[in-house]
Amino acid sequence: MSEQLHQKMGLSDQEYALILHLMGREPNELELGMFSVMWSEHCSYKCSKKVLQSLPTEGDQILLGPGENAGIVDIGEGLAVAFKMESHNHPSAIEPYQGAATGVGGIVRDIFTMGARPIALLNSLRFGPLHYPRVQYLFEGVVAGIAGYGNCIGIPTVGGETWFDPAYQGNPLVNVMCAGVLPASRIARGQARGPGNTVILVGARTGRDGLHGVTFASEGLDETSEAQRPAVQVGDPFMEKLLLEACLEAIEKELVAGIQDLGGAGLTCATSEMSSRAGSGMIIHLDRVPCREEDMSPYEIMLSESQERMLLVVENENIKAVQDIFTRWGLEFSAIGQVTGDGLLQIYHRGEKVGELAADFLCENAPVYDLPDQEPPYYQKLKSYDMQAVPQPDDLEEAFLELLASPNIASKQWIYRQYDYMVRTCTAQGPGGDAAVLRIRGTAKGLAFSADGNGRYVYLDPYKGGMIAVLEAARNVAAAGAKPLAITNCLNFGNPTRPQIYWQFKHAVKGMAEACRALGTPVTGGNVSFYNETSGEAIFPTPVVGMLGLLENLSCQVQKGWRRASDRVYLLGDLAGSLAGSEYLYALHGVLAGDMPLPDLERAAFLHQFLGEAAASKVITSAHDLSDGGLLTALAEASFAGGFGVEISLPHPENVRLDELLFGEGQSRVLVGVSLEKERDFLTLIRSYQLPWQLLGEVKGEKLTVRIQEEEPLIDLSLERVKAAWEEVISCCLD
Amino acid sequence: MKFGVIVFPGSNCDLDAFYMVKDVLNKPVEYLWHHEKTLRGSDCVILPGGFTYGDYLRPGAIASFSPIMTAVHAFAARGGLVLGICNGFQVLLESGLLPGALYRNIHLQFRCAWTHLSVENPHLPFTAHIPSGQVLKIPVAHGDGNYFCDPETLETLKKNNQIVFRYVTPEGNLDSRANPNGSLEAIAGICNARGNVLGMMPHPERAGESLLGSRDGQFIFQSILKHWGESS
Question: Is B129 an annotated catalytic residue?
Fold first, then answer.
């Protein structure tokens, strides 16, 4: 085997030496190809594993932590939720429609593989500034791809977030999350249990598409990436819908001993992971794999990333029953091999053994790296930025309208109106709310989901930014009245072999871990996406957190819009925010700098607990989290959602700038509406918590009016005008 | 009164229709597999929304050849109540049970949104018990809902009172901004000449509970029940 070949496949000389050591011989081309895809960063997590070990993964509610296709959380009454988030950044940078569509397909398979019925999709997207034609192409293609796939399979896309910044111009982020519900007692596993059981491949035929997709995803992007278009797969949501129904039927009838989807690294990954997890092996006959083209080589069949395929392990007495289900759904079904007890993957083609290696070599024995890290020079410099250099706006009304018109703050309706967020008739709160809320049919319960991450904060301070990602996601589900239970995540970073990137990664994970511990929301799994770079320029470090929350009683759900004129408006948390890393600072002044205050994790936990209790006892009529854009933006959003104006009077603390007061950002701040009848109960409850709070004003009329104490209003605008500044921004950018 | 909900490969609002009947109306309902030859005694058959056969070829085109469609044709010919929603409407058009066609939305995007409907023919089994003048708040979710037919067909539809619903403003006025897909004359739903087969793009089964944002879809189902002499 020539040295060039392993290098071409993305393996280092050191890794090749390890392969020689494990195998005790030179691998053939097929075996080497299998190593290369399984030892890619995408499959092996070789550069992230050590750091990820610091994340908390245990809790009473956790039925299954990281390591399987998705984590599983107990929600009571014998039910559980499987949920996970995954990135499809690189494919989407090259072929936005199919890249995003197959991202949805992949995460949906991860969920039904566990035996869960998928009930919701969310996404977290990042693009460059929308005035670039290439960015428009990527943005429109990604949204259409998510819509095209999700709508067709009939899983509602209920929420998400989209953010624009030059940092993502060449390398957009497409993170998709799926959640499903299953009986807690019937978790399907990606394990090849029971020697003698039959290995069955179902679904789409295997083609030459997506060869080395995972290797492609483990490199940076540059001007030659366009040539990688063939590494992007093409999705068939109709096939996925059939697969989903057939697999769930087979799992519900308890006919399946093990099941795993074929995603990155295709058959190689599914056969080796299923074997390795169960401590078993497999004999695979590649002639029995239904192929799209004749004369596909063993290498191509084992590495193909053709979509919409599943690998099943079935006890022999159940084969007929399983086959009947798949035939009924019009799906191809092929017994391609057998489970063995020897831990080996033995691959046959045309009567010859074409490969043999231990499954563990590909999984357990993959290298793990502890990489050097180094604080980047920008870090201290941006931290010590003097905010006095930023001029205060002469006209606060104009500044406010300009801020609302920033695509990061503006309405995302252009996006989500393309998603079917209502199908399955369980959506109690769709896109546009703080969290998406779904009912669980047959129970009084509801689930709340949120996906959040602010790359700008993480860039300025990875440790605090990592915390903030968790806090914000938790606060969003808490604002809906739900108890935050657990998270999944997508960690999007640059090239980890660059010490400054690895430093960002380490510190962001540390911050996330501390926040997860403080809030009691363990990590159930997720995905690391490194090498998000264009020609050596990395994206903002962007960990995205997908939070699951539980509402014991869906009828206690709280929404963000004002409910009634005369309701009192209270602010929980600090009055003034900080300009550090704020949208205001960037959108109006073009400055990305500052030192965010260290979040108070204990206070955050109190706040979330308070929100849950306030919702359950119905002492608040609305709740809306303060995030990008600060206090004024949150007031406007609550007004848009509720259709009422608001009149607010603020104290003006010393040493606080007006723009800081109105547009500053910070953690653990929430606006709540309180009816006059419940105000006493609300005050009794809030006083029993150690939380700052203050009365700001009342829901009133059709104007947004803000004054300092009794002075003339600083802001006095009709709701109609404010809404006009915010509503059609994205459509206008695309015209 | 018993309802049947047909399940084609790729149907995905079958569940929504099923639970509307079962949980909201509290009436018997069962799924009918597309290979079946009978409607198993259903008194009203629903062709649900979704993406039958992935919308490949044209939405509804392949499903219109499903074995069960022979039974649907015979049932319709006997005066049986057939309700096609969204993709189900597309199947009814492709199978010739209703006239005209659905183009891609004029803006070429999928659209999921609340719409408001005026009831243009209040004398049908599907509409007779909608309060007079009531504007129905019912959502759409489709990529191909832009209704079109030739001028002669349009004349016939008008003459026979076959235009059942139009997209209007919440106040009930015609306005191009209230039309989510560019449909000819803001047509949201039509029926056959006899009035027993209704096709509509909006989803009444998604508007059955206030939790979901509207209960107006119930007016259509209650009309069907009352036509049958039942109440829920």
Answer: no
CB-CB under 8 Å, B12 with A154: yes
Q: What is the mean pLDDT of residues B163-174?
A: 98
Which residues of A fall within a CB distance of 8 Å from B15? 424-425
Nearest to B65 by CA among B99, B101, B34: B34
Is residue A88 among the annotated active site residues? yes
Q: Using CA atoms, how far apart are residues A438 and A174, in angstroms rounded to an integer?
A: 23
Active-site residue, B13 included: no
Tokens 């559980």 sit on residue: A80
Q: Which residue has the tokens 């002044």?
A: A589
Summarised one tens digit per residue, pLDDT across range A126-180 is 999 999 999 999 999 999 999 999 999 999 999 999 999 999 999 999 999 999 9
- Please compute, for residue A537, the number of CA atoms within 13 A of its CA located in the half-sphere on the CB side: 11
CA gap B66, A243 in Å, rounded: 20
Radius of gyration of chain B (CA): 16
Taking the Cβ of residue A428 and every Cβ of chain B, the question of whether any pair is shorter than 8 Å is answered with: yes
**Catalytic annotation, pick one of B86, B94, B116, B142:** B86
Instruction: Kindly name the residue from A88, A212, A349, A624 that is annotated as catalytic.
Output: A88
**Quick one: tokens of A308?**
């919409």
Give contacts of A 138-167 with B, CB under 8 A: 144, 147-148, 151-154
Mutation for testing the B interface, residue in A142, A307, A420, A445 having most B CBs under 10 Å: A420
Question: A648 is written with which tokens?
Answer: 């607010």
Nearest CA in chain A to B113: A417
Per residue in A195-232, is it b (16+ CB within 10 Å) or e — as a string? eebbbbbbbbbbbbbbbbbbbbbbbbbeeebeebeebb
Residue of A nearest to B112 (CA): A417
Q: pLDDT tens-digit profile of B17-71?
A: 999 999 999 999 999 999 999 999 999 999 999 999 999 999 999 999 999 999 9
Among the options A6, A42, A349, A624, which is catalytic?
A: A42
Token representation of residue B112: 């999921």
B190 dihedral zone (left: phi>0; alpha: psi -120 to 50; beta):
beta
Structure tokens at A176: 């998709």
- Compute the distance between CA of residue A176 and CA of residue A88 in angstroms, rounded to an integer: 8
Q: Does B139 touch chain A (CB under 8 A)?
A: yes
User: What's the pLDDT tens digit per position in A659-680?
Assistant: 999 999 999 999 999 999 999 9
Could you give the angle at which helices A679-687 and A601-616 cross, rounded to 10 degrees? 150
Give the pTM. Answer: 0.96
Minimal CA separation from B69 to chain A, in Å: 18
Q: Which residues are within 8 A (CB) of A372 and not within 5 positions of it... i.e. 6 or more apart?
A: A499, A502
CA–CA separation, A665 and A633 (whole Å): 10
